[in-house]
């Protein structure tokens, strides 16, 4: 049996605070079960003492040695109530007293069982070895006590070994339960950490979409200022204001992304919060693109969209946002048609169309090339599907369907 680690601070069985070899085992709010067990051990020790008294009377032992034997045995029986606090001390005292007082054998067996439960095998082995010498020492100290038959000696040894094995089994079982509880707790903490990290990753992806949208607006306005240096001062001032606001918002979004990522290191118990747009925010998203110079036509059913669950609405919002960002990157002068429909019992359909960019020599805004892949993953995880690509009519079509339990 492996020794217990003194540094282990895992919870111990009821009624035990410490299981280290050098620490006392103190009662920690004893339960009714603990008190019942203690009472049973006390009664067992008292019963063995009474049997020893009856056996002594039957063997006509002198009254004085028999009275001393009974008093010592009774004191050891009272010491059984301290077995949880000082198991090794009780075992040593009971063993020493048992050399003279045979009536203390019941208390000695209870102490041996307690040591086997609460102490390491090295300590138990020393106590058991000392107990093995007690019968031989008794023959030297108490010549007035007759030696019993061999069958009785063998039965006593077998009973002591059974008590010792039972105590070691109880200890092994408690250690197994404690280790199982430790594993369950570790697995629970791992699942919580994974869930927390997954939430941070999700929020980081959300912020990535927002940040990409902000930066594309910023790049578009900066490009307009570069291409029209002779614009009216009012237009330049308005465009510069939009650039300033977009840059500020982009910095705020970036700061929030960094805060989300740092939360896993600096604030593990803090739940990060991020923007949670829904389909109700689509008009504002389209207005932002229109203020950036895009031509966007929005067709959506306001009443039906209000019944869409927030999770589905957020995914649809991100699909529209990424579609507008891609259109602004690759076809900045094209008209974009956005159609969002919600059919009760069917789901939410999102479609973004814009003419495919021609060979106009326009330098598009560079992208990471992962937007459509992320949208496909988002739609798949939501139980829907996403399609994208050119159409025979010469348009680029981004289409997605998301299941929605609309009532």
UniProtKB/TrEMBL annotation:
- Where is the chain membrane-spanning? 36-54, 88-116, 123-141, 153-172
The UniProt keyword set, sorted, is: ATP-binding, Kinase, Membrane, Nucleotide-binding, Phosphoprotein, Transferase, Transmembrane, Transmembrane helix, Two-component regulatory system
Where in the numbering of this chain does the Histidine kinase/HSP90-like ATPase domain appear?
315-404
Spell out the reaction equation it catalyses: ATP + protein L-histidine = ADP + protein N-phospho-L-histidine
Disordered: annotated segments: 1-26
Q: What is its EC number?
A: 2.7.13.3
Superkingdom of origin organism? Bacteria
Q: Does the keyword Kinase apply?
A: yes
Q: Which GO terms describe its molecular function?
A: kinase activity
- One matching Pfam family: HisKA_3
Biased composition, class Basic and acidic residues, residue ranges: 1-10
Per UniProt, residues of the Signal transduction histidine kinase subgroup 3 dimerisation and phosphoacceptor domain are 199-264
PANTHER family annotated for this entry?
A: NITRATE/NITRITE SENSOR PROTEIN NARX-RELATED, NITRATE_NITRITE SENSOR PROTEIN NARQ
Question: In its UniProt entry, what is this protein called?
Answer: histidine kinase
Please tell me the species this chain comes from. Answer: Luedemannella flava
């Amino acid at each position: 049996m492996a020794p217990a680690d003194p540094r282990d601070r895992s919870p111990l069985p009821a009624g035990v605070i410490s299981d280290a070899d050098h620490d006392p085992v103190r009662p920690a709010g004893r339960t009714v079960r603990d008190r019942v067990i203690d009472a049973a051990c006390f009664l067992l020790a008292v019963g063995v003492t009474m049997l020893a008294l009856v056996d002594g009377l039957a063997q006509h032992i002198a009254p004085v040695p028999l009275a001393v034997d009974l008093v010592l045995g009774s004191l050891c029986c009272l010491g059984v109530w301290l077995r949880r606090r000082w198991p090794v001390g009780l075992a040593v005292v009971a063993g020493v007293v048992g050399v003279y007082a045979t009536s203390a054998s019941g208390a000695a067996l209870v102490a041996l069982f307690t040591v086997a439960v609460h102490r390491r095998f090295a300590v138990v082995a020393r106590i058991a070895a000392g107990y093995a010498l007690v019968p031989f020492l008794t023959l030297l100290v108490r010549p007035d006590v007759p030696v019993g038959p061999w069958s009785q000696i063998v039965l006593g040894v077998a009973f002591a070994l059974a008590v010792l094995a039972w105590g070691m089994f109880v200890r092994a079982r408690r250690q197994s339960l404690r280790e199982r509880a430790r594993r369950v707790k570790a697995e629970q903490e791992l699942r919580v950490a994974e869930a927390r990290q997954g939430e941070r990753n999700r929020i980081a992806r959300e912020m990535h979409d927002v940040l990409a949208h902000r930066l594309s607006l910023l790049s578009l306005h900066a490009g307009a200022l570069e291409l029209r240096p002779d614009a009216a001062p009012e237009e330049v001032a308005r465009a510069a204001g939009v650039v300033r606001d977009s840059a500020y918002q982009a910095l705020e979004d970036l700061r929030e992304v960094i805060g989300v990522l740092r939360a896993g290191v600096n604030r593990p118990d803090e739940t990060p919060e991020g923007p949670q747009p829904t389909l109700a925010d689509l008009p504002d998203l389209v207005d932002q693109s229109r203020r950036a110079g895009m031509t966007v036509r929005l067709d959506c059913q306001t009443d039906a969209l209000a019944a869409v669950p927030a999770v589905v609405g957020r995914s649809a919002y991100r699909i529209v946002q990424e579609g507008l960002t891609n259109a602004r990157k690759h076809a900045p002068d094209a008209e974009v048609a956005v159609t969002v429909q919600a059919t009760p019992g069917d789901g939410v359909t999102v479609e973004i169309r814009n003419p495919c960019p021609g060979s106009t020599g326009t330098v598009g805004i560079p992208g990471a090339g992962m937007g459509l892949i992320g949208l496909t993953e988002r739609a798949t995880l939501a139980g829907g599907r996403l399609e994208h690509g050119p159409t025979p009519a010469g348009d680029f079509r981004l289409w997605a369907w998301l299941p929605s339990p609309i009532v």
